[in-house]
User: Which sequence fits this backbone?
């Protein structure tokens, strides 16, 4: 019997992984351009970190975490998201004691025990940023502008950026009271989940995907009518910068983050092509989080992009170069000729040319294999070539071939493949 992968965990095969890396590199490039530096975070944290940052009663912490006790009886969890770990690392490593504004990005797998479905896995990947220490509306606008840029930069166009103003600890309670009052009058229309949330965490009802709840949410009082003058001014300043910058967005009072420390700007990038779970990226300002986790009282904000969802939105014709070797080495004939071919392949690889190795079958089958693998060039080295100290260099695209000195084939290939600059530089 074979051993299968764990439900909800998948393999990313060659071909797909190539697209993946390409997209990741582009996003990484945009993060760098916006001044963010990478932080490499552990996958495993103390369960307490997520209980405190996400809240004991949230769905993620209650039902979706991969938590277990280690051999000393300590409760540990695979990270379900990146922000808690980034903020924990910020506090633990005293990153606040250098530059007062810290810009971090992270990338990697997250783990949630959810019902697996199309495009949703129990191990999924996120790339995210955290901008800690800057309370200004410019920071919000900058982060939103970055998200807008990188979605377009990777080739995803049919995405809506929706933003909302969640108010702050001073002005939100009045809104929550108004919302609770409204929800109490529509109890019979709410799903079981929302009935439970209506009192405890009423804003979560606003982003329920059940149709009846969407109808209730549509008539709910808007938080935008309840925020204080400072929160309103902050939001207007963010919007003014986005407008000046030509970043397109809609204001949607149903965008919520559902946790107390999320304040003011909250946002989501959604696509109708993703179905009910339609957010490809989400984020917001979390001014209370660093303090809540035992750090200094500094503001923060950030977002995370769902990589699987982002990749699902890539256009079919996305321009992705092949990750297959561009050169195939074909060794044929005597043992000496085959040894020479082996050594030449190795030398070429060490100089930066990706070379596929033909293996031990006949000349004909090796050539067929090279063609099928999409190699741009094939090098043939048999006894005749060995004797003349040459190789046959076949250009597969132009269907032409020539004999070149064995010692020169490396330079020729580096030049033709456009690698000479990159390798020497
Ligand atoms: Zn509901
Ligand atoms: Zn306020």
Assistant:
């Amino acid at each position: 019997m074979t051993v299968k992968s764990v439900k909800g965990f998948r393999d990313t095969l060659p071909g797909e992984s190539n697209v993946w890396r390409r997209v990741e590199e582009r996003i990484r490039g945009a993060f760098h351009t916006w001044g963010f530096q990478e932080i490499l975070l552990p996958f495993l944290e103390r369960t307490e970190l997520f209980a405190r940052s996400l809240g004991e009663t949230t769905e993620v912490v209650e039902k979706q975490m991969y938590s277990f006790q280690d051999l000393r009886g300590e409760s540990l969890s695979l990270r379900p998201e990146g922000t808690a770990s980034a903020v924990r690392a910020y506090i633990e490593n005293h990153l606040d004691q250098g530059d007062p504004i810290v810009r971090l990005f992270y990338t990697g797998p997250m783990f949630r025990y959810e019902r697996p479905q199309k495009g949703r896995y129990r191990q999924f990947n996120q790339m995210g940023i955290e901008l800690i220490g800057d309370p200004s509306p410019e920071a919000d606008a900058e982060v939103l502008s970055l998200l807008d840029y990188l979605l377009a930069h990777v080739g995803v166009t049919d995405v809506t950026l929706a933003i909302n103003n969640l108010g702050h600890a001073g002005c939100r309670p009045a809104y929550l009271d108004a919302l609770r009052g409204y929800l109490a009058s529509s109890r019979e229309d709410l799903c079981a989940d929302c009935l439970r949330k209506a009192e405890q965490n009423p804003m979560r009802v606003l982003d329920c995907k059940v149709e009846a709840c969407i109808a209730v949410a549509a008539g709910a009082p808007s938080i935008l009518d309840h925020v204080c003058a400072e929160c309103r001014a902050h939001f207007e300043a963010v919007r003014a910068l986005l407008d000046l910058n030509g970043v397109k967005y809609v204001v949607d009072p149903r965008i919520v983050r559902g946790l107390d420390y999320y304040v003011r700007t909250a946002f989501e990038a959604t696509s109708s092509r993703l179905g009910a779970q339609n957010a490809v990226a989400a984020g917001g300002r979390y001014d209370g989080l660093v303090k809540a986790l035992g750090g200094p009282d500094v503001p923060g904000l950030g977002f995370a992009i769902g990589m699987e969802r982002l990749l699902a939105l890539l256009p079919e014709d996305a321009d992705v170069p092949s990750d297959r070797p561009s050169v195939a080495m074909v060794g044929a004939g005597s043992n000496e000729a085959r040894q020479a071919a082996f050594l030449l392949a190795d030398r070429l690889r060490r100089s930066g040319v990706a070379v596929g190795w033909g293996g031990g079958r006949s000349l004909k089958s090796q050539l067929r294999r090279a063609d099928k693998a999409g190699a741009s060039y094939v090098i043939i080295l048999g006894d005749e070539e060995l004797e003349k100290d040459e190789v046959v260099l076949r250009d597969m695209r132009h269907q032409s071939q020539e004999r070149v000195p064995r010692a020169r084939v490396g330079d020729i290939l580096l030049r033709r493949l456009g690698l000479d600059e990159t390798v020497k530089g």
Observations:
- The chain has two domains: 16-171+227-313, 327-414.
- DSSP finds 16 helices and 16 strands in the chain.
- The mean pLDDT is 91.
